[in-house]
Design goal:
By secondary structure, the protein is mainly α. The protein has helices at about 1-30, 35-55, 65-85, 95-125.
């Protein structure tokens, strides 16, 4: 039972760190002093963290999915940071908050597919 508690705590810590990092990044590049900005911030924040939050909230997955999603989270934070805070910013850089989550959903689907294939292979004796 301790194993399941450790996995749950790991997921919670991973999700909290990711959400905090995304919130800080969006606050740094946004205009939080403008009250109307917060109306756009909340949906974009939810959209941005959803591909990482949803799989980590699931109970039927194990360490492989947690580690795979954690790697995707780390890669996405790097991409968000370099795109938004890098020296060669463009006027369309903020579009990363719309399109990168789509790619993350595809990455999460691959993580789940690999996890499922490994389970099927073990079940069939492959």
């Amino acid at each position: 039972m301790r194993f399941a508690g450790t996995l749950g705590n790991t997921r919670l810590a991973l999700l909290a760190c990711y959400a905090l990092a995304i919130a800080i990044l969006q606050l740094m590049v946004g205009s939080p002093q403008n009250p109307s900005w917060w109306l756009a911030f909340l949906p974009f924040f939810a959209w941005t963290i959803a591909p990482i939050a949803v799989p980590l909230a699931g109970r039927g997955t194990g360490w492989f999915v947690t580690i795979g999603v954690g790697l995707l989270a780390a890669i996405s934070l790097y991409l968000y940071g370099t795109t938004m805070l890098g020296s060669d910013q463009s006027s369309t850089a903020a579009l990363i908050f719309i399109f990168l989550p789509l790619y993350l959903w595809v990455g999460v689907a691959f993580v789940f597919l690999i996890d499922w294939l490994s389970r099927v292979g073990k079940h069939n004796g492959v």
